[in-house]
Amino acid sequence: MKVNSPCLVVQCQRRARPVGRKRNSHRPEILVSFRESDRIEREGIESIAGKRTRMNRSTIAKAALVIGIALFAGYLVWWIVPEYFKAREDPRSQARLSRIASELNQSVPVMIDKETELMPAIGEEGMLIYNYRLVGYSAIQINATKFAEGAKQRVVQGACRTPETRDDFLKKGVTLRYSYYDRDNQPIATVDVKPSDCGF
Q1: pLDDT tens for each residue of 66-98
Q2: For a 10 Å CB count at each end of the chain, is N or C smaller?
Q3: Sequence ranges of the domains in the chain
Q4: Whether the predicted pLDDT of 60 surpasses 60
Q5: Mean pLDDT of 168-194
């Protein structure tokens, strides 16, 4: 038993050495692998960071371009559009008053009472003209001065009290003219209602 025991010990030692050498031989490779992995990881991070930087620069450039276009468009809107609407919305303009007259004229001539016919209206600069025909009278039968004086009071009261004529025209500086004609379309009298007649 004593003779065999050294052999067993030697055999165990011989078996143990290759195992030790294998472990030692693998350690440098593992270290190299860790270093390579670290280098690859750093290179990958730098590459991703570079791509992100390029993407961020491209995104910023696109955003700057869009903002520049928006600012330019806003400037055009600020400069052009107000003038456009100002010209179209001027309540005293002939274009606006002519358009209103055209809308009114779609339903004329029409009898507003048994003696008075509303005829086509006319839009002029700063003035809307209503034309009336007295179907039962001739101009030679009417005293034009007295007729105008009596009509003036009634027309002013009506225009100043009626919301449509007061708010849409007189308050906005538009003069309303009421022209009267006889049955043969001969002029009888003209009555103007100015904004000042209603206190505007």
Answers
A1: 455 555 455 444 555 555 555 566 999 999 999
A2: N
A3: 1-89, 94-198
A4: no
A5: 96
Average pLDDT, the chain: 75
Q: Give per-residue burial for 83-98: e unless 16+ CB within 10 Å, then b.
A: eeeeeeebebbeebbb
pLDDT of 41 above 80: no
What pLDDT does residue 23 have? 45
Yes or no: domain 94-198 corresponds to CATH 3.40.190.10? no
Question: For residue 197, which amino acid is it?
Answer: D
C-alpha pair distances (Å), 184 with each of 28, 36, 120, 134, 188: 123, 111, 15, 9, 11
HEC-encoded secondary structure of the chain: CCCHHHHHHHHHHHHHHHHHHHHHHHHHHHHHHHHHHHHHHHHHHHHHHHHHHHHHHHHHHHHHHHHHHHHHHHHHHHHHHHHHHHHHHCCCCHHHHHHHHHHHHCCCCEECCCCEEEEEEEEECCEEEEEEEECCCCHHHCCHHHHHHHHHHHHHHHHHHCHHHHHHCHHHCCEEEEEEECCCCCEEEEEEECHHHHCC
Question: What's residue 20's pLDDT?
Answer: 46
Pairing between strand 175-181 and 187-193? antiparallel
